Amino acid sequence: MWNRFKKYSFVIIFGVIILNHQSVFAQRANMATSGLQVSATIIPDIQLMTIRDINMMDIETTNNILHISPLNDVNAGLMLATGQPNAQIRLNYLKQLEMIRTDGPGQLLVNYEVSVYSEDNQRSSRLFETIEEALRFSELGKLYIWVGGVIDLNKAYPGNYEGEFTVEIEYM
Q: Which domain holds residue 20?
């Protein structure tokens, strides 16, 4: 009986080894037939270029307040953002800035206004009012940005003033 048991145990062990070996083959077969596809989309950087600075010269003031409309004033600044065509983007900018006189006392308080359009057509641009608003680059990957605002000259003296208009554009 022991011999028979040894004989059958060998067959059983051999059978288990064969079954395990076949399941490994089955797993390998499944691995060979199924695949993992990996792809990456490289999004080009967003470029921002100043085409024209805000021109505060030769503008009439009312109570020492200048208003430069980004929608229709030729004195508005102009920037061009370029990126991936038709990509959805988010735009954010510093809405208020205090510019400091470089050579003595004085300041300008600027409340910026921005309008945007996909083409270089200021009159067709629309006022950008909230950072929650989704924008898109044009089919050519362009977005034109006009910058104006309300500038308070009440604490200003003649001289040079420094300050930076900061705009952030990111893909969504």
A: 1-39
